[in-house]
Batch of 2 targets.
Target 1
Amino acid sequence: MFVRSSIGLAFCLLLVSYTGFCQSFNRDTLRLELPRAERMFLDSNLQLIAQKFNVDATKALIIQARLWPNPNINISQGAYNTETKKWFQLADPNNAEQSFQLSQLLVLAGKIRKQTKIAETNYKLAEYGLYDLLRSLKLALRSSFFNIYYLQQTAKVYDEEIGSLKVIVDAFEQQVGKGYVSESDVVRVQAQLYSLQSEYQALIDNINDQQSQIRLLLQTSPSTFVVPIVDTGEITTVDLRRFDLQTLMDSAYQNRTDLMIAKGNLLLSQQNYSLQKALAVPDLTAGFGFDRHGSYIANYNSVGLGIDIPIFNRNQGNIKSTRILIDLNKTQLQLTQKTLEEQVTRGLQKALDADKLYKAINPSFAAHFNKLAEAMLESYKNRLVRLLDFLTFYDSYKQNIVQLNTTLYNKVSALENLNFLTGTNFFN
């Protein structure tokens, strides 16, 4: 009778077990729906904020690229007159020497314009880098969000079974010496309990790893425990047949930021090649000069032009290097396109396979299995089934519920991966 009443207490204890699990690691519980989590992520993620600063810094370089070189002025004043034995005869210009020169570098071959285009392309690449980072971090956020949810559902199953077995073990240990329970039964139940506790600890470690990642993404305190709120009905009703492969491929070609970066790198190498050819053209220096007494006449005025003679250095090495880089970036672009096509095709295939596996599961499976579990526990309390049958059933119950949660997460993960690969939230 004591054994039966002790087993009956198990389900009462389970009502608070999972809440205790949440609070044993962290003090603050944060219940989040996915839209709110994404808003927190966009507002506070430090990686995104840092990349935004990088974009702004790159944009400022466009201003610098448009600027012309400053003019140069050179002023000279005679220091000591050896004839009059006087210093700095500013009051007597007839006995003093003054001169000055004003020069300006005239940049030829459209170098300023070409530099500006390169700066604008670098700015675009920095923007694409921001969007690509956002795309990757958003996948990490949503994956962790759903992973935590389904891992927590699995943890509840372990809580139930461990709680039940603990009560049974305690009851058996008190009855074993009285002849009501054999020592082999006690050992069998204890072995099952230790195995479950080991699996449960691995599961908790996985949850805590995911919690750590989502806290970093949301920039919450280390004491926060995130409890995702998920509408599983929306997930189960997603119809993958709404979108064919070509639609997904077109979206990927239009929205994938890594493809935009590959195109931007090709454009940048082409612009740099054009600039390097322009740098082979020497720039012109124009100037005006005045010399009071230092030339063949007093108050000498002059204008002049200066230019390098491109005999030895015609920028040959840089021109050849940038021409090769164009071919390199063309190859990288082709590789990115091929990779994109393969990823989208495989991503859709994985999503269809995950959806097919989920649809093969009876919708009432979980509820039906829960009722069977309750009936099995009641039958064991009334000694209508053997301990071995009871333990075998509970192990099957645990494995099937875990597999169900894994299947659901795999479907969600496949859909999120398809969003990532196409650059579009087809499934939200």
Note: The domain at 2-68+107-280+315-422 is CATH 1.20.1600.10 (Outer membrane efflux proteins (OEP)).
Target 2
Amino acid sequence: MRIVAIFSRDFRFLDNALFEGYKDNEIIPLFLLDQFNQTEHGDNIKSLFFQYVTQFSEELKKLKSKLYIIKLEDFGQFLDISRPDSVRHSFDVEPHSIDKINYLKLECEKRKIKFDLINQFLLPYQEQNFKKIYSPFFKKIFLTYLNNNPPKIYSKPNLLFTPTLKIKNTSLPTIVKGNIIKLWFKTEKEVLDSFEEFLTKKLSKYEILRDYPSAGATSGLSIYLRVGAISHRYVYKKALSYPNNQKFISELAWSEFYRIWLYLNPYVKNIEYKESWRKFKWKYDIELFEKWKRAETGYEMVDAGINQLNEEGWMHNRVRMITASFLVKNLMIDWRWGEQFFYKNLVDADMAQNVGNWQWVTGCGLDASPYFRIFNPQLQLKKFDPEKKYISKYLKTQHPKIIDFERSKREFLKQATTLKT
């Protein structure tokens, strides 16, 4: 059989279901360049993403194969030339990805070519696999399903049978070389090795130290899961073989939680999940928003976090919550402004996670403890960076406070308590 395998966010060789049957079939690797690749994401994730596409293409050559790169609108022509028996594409939940998948499926149907949608995540995406509160989702859905359905790990191909086609590759956008790639790019082997090091040296203290931004206690996998340099299946199954894994696995489950939520409720990408919150009167104060973006709020933990994001394209998760809470619950700026700023700048920008976390912080999304959770950046600093190691690394200039924390908190709560939450 001749199989076209379309790679979108799965640029790896170990545990990649797109390569299934590689020993007995012709596999034609394909990457589709569309406008979303180029317009929706910011330069940070684009530079890293296209670096992975390039690296993946080079690694395929070592297997006597080739990555064909074409524009999305040329897919039908590609099918006419390659004449495959089937086409494979990994399942995704983002609305634009679903639109693209539907387009690809239609092009295949026109030519009576089988289209296989492959789920490379951990859970099937169905209504019954979801609970609106995370804890029962984790215990009754996530763990139960995986205990009964242990994930299969696909072997790494050592040789691919890829036919030579008379198709000229489309050039990838110019990759923004520099700090982001130097900081974050790792080969697949390096990603696997660093994960192994995390499991052997850091997992035992993960639950205790994960909230301390200077401790270096997290796995750092979000970036590599996003581009698919490592699989969710592999991470889950590997972690199971180590003690003290429950907290780490529960964090992995959050990504499934938000992906299923977005899949079932695609409107939440820009509309509050809780309908009552759609009446909240945000302050569209551009000057305050710009100060937040430039790390000029006067609150050390907030400014250090924004500096880290601006410099590195990444921010520690605890600090993400602190900076987001300050924007929506103290500056009372629309959460969508902050969500888009993060999405444009994070190297691990993932729509489901980003939207889910911003709505969680705001209190308008999936949240067992809604609007009254407000992160005090000064108390958070004392608790999670008591020696100011994180602050000293990322805080360049101390600015005067742009608002009074307690007064702004009261103003937010006064309005929020009127909503039916």
Note: The chain has three domains: 2-120, 121-153+188-264, 267-416.
